[in-house]
Amino acid sequence: MWSGERENSRGQLLMEVLIAVGVASLVFTAAIPLISVARFAGVKVRADTIGSALSQETVEAAYAISANGWNTLAEPLGTQDKGPTHPYHTIVQSGSWALAAGPETITRDGIDFTRQLVIDDVSRTEMNGEGDIEPIFTSERRDPTTLKLTAQVSWAGSTPLIAEHFVTRSR
Length: 171
What we know:
By secondary structure, the chain is α+β, with helices and mostly antiparallel strands. It has helices at residues 2-68, 70-74; strands spanning 88-93, 96-101, 104-108, 111-123, 142-155, 161-168. The strands form two sheets. A four-stranded antiparallel β-sheet has the order 3-4-5-6. A two-stranded antiparallel ribbon has the order 1-2. The termini are far apart.
């Protein structure tokens, strides 16, 4: 009788090994997509963080440019060219922030980011720079002491990050 118990236990061990292999393969099959999703999410979070930092840097550079000379923003590169058809980007020139024409491409962590700064005039609900900023620009009530800055950063597979700020010249 002892030999019959051994044969049953060998069969039982084989069944336990087969069940363990089956369960392990199910767990690994389910884990692979989760690892892939987690990896993609990590890349997306990293890109979002870099994009946000680039946008913030652009806005801070524009504020520094306006503090060094209002006309550098009010008349970019000595022109009246403003708005979405005339984007700029910020550069460091002789140790200070400056404007350069067009968008720029920056590569960080193997991702190509496109960054630009759009400068727009604003108008107010009342004359002479008084009242609230109007949502749609009206040239008759242009406020020469306030500009709208729109920093935009985009990269492949993303929705562009857009940050709008207003800068006012000190009176």
